[in-house]
């Protein structure tokens, strides 16, 4: 069964983003994004986010505290043990981001959209072409028997 794990958020960077390096030399940045809630008395939610490689470096450079950004990514849960206590964190692993406005409502100083997924672009292009071909083969006039749908 296929699964969907996609998160899209718009919020403000809680504090200046710092980039660290892993033992293998990859850049990683962990930070919190304040996302406004809904409704009259809604509080903001503080969402933990992680960016890797070039995305981490660009966010650290162009997204200071208070900067509004849009992100798209996937949820990931980490479980570890510290001082004999099990700990758990759920984070958004960023695949795409967009710089929006700063705390004073100013405009961007960097390109508006950056995409840094870890997949090979050739693979993504092949998948897109295959999906386009599959769409061409669909006969929209074929009736659908609802009893054949498995859910």
Descriptors for this entry?
single chain; 151 residues; alpha+beta; OB fold (Dihydrolipoamide Acetyltransferase, E2P); 5-stranded mixed β-barrel; 17% helix
Main sheet, how many strands, which sense, barrel? 5 strands, mixed, barrel
Quickly name the level 1 CATH class: Mainly Beta
| Beta content | 35-45%
Largest sheet, order of strands side by side?
1-3-4-6-5
The CATH topology turns out to be OB fold (Dihydrolipoamide Acetyltransferase, E2P)
CATH superfamily, called what? Nucleic acid-binding proteins
First-residue to last-residue Cα separation: 12 Å
The sequence of SSEs as H and E is EEEEHEEEH
Please report the number of helical segments: 2
Could you tell me the number of beta strands? Answer: 7
By helix and strand content, what is the structural category?
Answer: alpha+beta
Report on this structure:
By secondary structure, this protein is α+β, with helices and mostly antiparallel strands. It has one domain (7-139): Nucleic acid-binding proteins (OB fold (Dihydrolipoamide Acetyltransferase, E2P), Beta Barrel). 17% of the residues lie in helices and 40% in strands. It has helices at residues 53-62, 121-136; strands spanning 7-13, 19-21, 27-35, 45-52, 68-82, 85-99, 113-115. Strands 1-3-4-6-5 form a 5-stranded mixed β-barrel. 15% of the residues are buried.
């Amino acid at each position: 069964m296929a699964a969907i794990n996609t998160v899209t958020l718009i919020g403000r960077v809680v504090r200046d983003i710092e980039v660290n390096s892993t033992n293998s030399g990859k850049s990683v940045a962990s930070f919190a994004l304040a996302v406004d809630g809904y409704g009259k008395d809604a509080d903001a939610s503080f969402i933990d986010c992680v960016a890797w490689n070039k995305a981490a470096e660009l966010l650290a450079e162009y997204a200071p505290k208070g900067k509004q950004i849009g992100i798209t990514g996937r949820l990931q849960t980490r479980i570890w043990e510290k001082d004999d206590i099990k700990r758990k964190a759920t984070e958004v692993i960023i695949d795409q981001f967009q710089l929006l406005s700063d705390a004073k409502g100013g405009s961007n100083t960097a390109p508006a959209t950056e995409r840094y997924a870890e997949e090979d672009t050739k693979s993504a292009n092949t998948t897109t072409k295959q999906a386009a071909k599959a769409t061409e083969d669909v006969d929209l006039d074929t009736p659908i028997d609802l009893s054949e749908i498995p859910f």
